[in-house]
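User: Last request for today: this protein with flavin-adenine dinucleotide, please.
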Amino acid sequence: MSEVVSDPLGLSPEQREIQAVCREFAEREIRPVAAEVDEADTQTPLELFHKAASLGLTSFMLPEEVGGGGMTDCLTGCIVQEELCWGCAGIGNLITSGGFFAEPVVELGTDEQKRRWLEPIAGERPPLTALATTEPGSGSDAASIQTTATRSEGGYRLRGQKTWISNGGLAELYVVFATVEPGSRSRGITAFVVEKGDPGVSFGEPMKKMGQRAIVNAEMFLEDAELAEDRRLGDEGQGFYGLMRTFDRSRVTLGASATGIARAALEYAVEYGKTREQFGKPIAEHQAVAFRLADMATRVDAARLLVHRAARRLDAGEAVPAEAAMAKLYASEAAMWCTWAAVQTLGGWGYSREYPVEKWMRDAKLEEIEEGTSDIQRLIISRHLLT
Ligand SMILES: Cc1cc2nc3c(=O)[nH]c(=O)nc-3n(C[C@H](O)[C@H](O)[C@H](O)COP(=O)(O)OP(=O)(O)OC[C@H]3O[C@@H](n4cnc5c(N)ncnc54)[C@H](O)[C@@H]3O)c2cc1C
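Assistant: Here's the final one, the structure of the complex with flavin-adenine dinucleotide:
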């Protein structure tokens, strides 16, 4: 693809540099193992994660004060995410998963808490981390969580169950959301840092899933897990605000991840279309195929433009829940559509596991679900329109 496509609005020299590093890493390190990791299922490629860490790709987004790369802007996060997820969405999202944990720590934590939990992530052998809000009875309605945090002698006692936790069981550190005031919805929600080895904390078996299999997902059980007072992030009741701030940003970077998948599908379909011949000419010379490629390219560009717009406005300090929702909604649906279109363009071979496009289609589906389904993004956008 041309530079115009990958750089619609102008990037700084530093952003171009990290984009080039990520592009090369995705090409050389991620693409060659993506199918194998997918087939292996639930075998997180930790070596690759640590290799990415040695290049600063797991910590570029952390503040310099804790040893991170200091590229804390959302736009850089999007550039990294698109390139890595072009290689493989599961592996790309694994590499940047520290950002999902770090966001509420940065937003709500004290300087001491930031040093304590972010310095290890910025280190040479970073631990895996996770964010746990979803529960068996609480998904889209994040304010309805039932996990409780009750005051105890030394701090808090957490009781409840989380589900679908990315890196669950493998991660050393978790931001867990619990309520100190059951029944009060968002008012009582409070964030805590839970360590894997804390008494009362255990995990289920890795969950079997459709795509993005480089990341393990598991249930998390909190059975009277005792936490010291200093594990609480922010004040009691500030957790929901911290979660929404995290989503405002992570939904935009998730849109970038989806754009990476869509771009991978487009590039593959274009090359295939130019070489596969039917009825005496390359299939891309049949107008139905050529037009489908044109639609794919248009969606990839539109997705990136929405993602970059939301990122730039966030970086300018604006609250942009509707723009973030639009970016995630459009980009994830573009990824789903473009991967479908790539499968269609390859015909029977698109359906074969020998080619990567069916995996990309499975990977793309998750982008429409996690961190708020497409319905929830539409809810946010329509509320913005109607209030
Ligand atoms: C692979 C994977 C990784 C994940 N990683 C994490 C993680 O690391 N941490 C974490 O906390 N969670 C994680 N999740 C959970 C994810 O965020 C939830 O699955 C998602 O928010 C949807 O919740 P749900 O699955 O309970 O669906 P539900 O909320 O039960 O929704 C079911 C359907 O109803 C629709 N719906 C619900 N409410 C409305 C409404 N008001 N209007 C219109 N339609 C509605 C939804 O759009 C959906 O189609 C992960 C999920 C998956 C699959």
